[in-house]
Specification:
With 82 residues, this protein is mostly helical. The protein has a domain of 44 residues. Helices cover 51% and strands 0% of the residues. The protein is flat and about 65 Å long. It starts with a helix and ends in an 8-residue tail after the last helix.
Length: 82
């Protein structure tokens, strides 16, 4: 019995979400709509204000990911022939 409880315990949130979806309720739907309205309101330009010209962004000097690997490997010499 305890094995079944420990097996189903992590699945309870998923089962609750599935049950609410089957009943026609969509958790978080109102929050998504409010967030979308807030983002849309922020992007609307005001007609009374002049738009500022955007300055070009300087390239980032921080190297990360694939570029960091490529730069670290590019300085190596080829392996010596045996």
């Amino acid at each position: 019995m305890t094995e079944l409880v420990t097996f189903l315990l992590p699945a309870l949130p998923l089962l609750a979400l599935l049950l609410t979806l089957l009943l026609g309720r969509y958790p978080g739907c109102e929050a998504i709509v409010r967030l979308a309205e807030r983002i849309a309101a922020r992007r609307r330009p005001d007609l009374g204000t002049a738009e500022r010209p955007r300055l070009p962004r300087s390239p980032s000097l921080v190297r990360s990911g694939g570029l960091l690997l490529a730069l670290s490997l590019s300085g190596r010499a080829p392996p010596a022939a045996a």
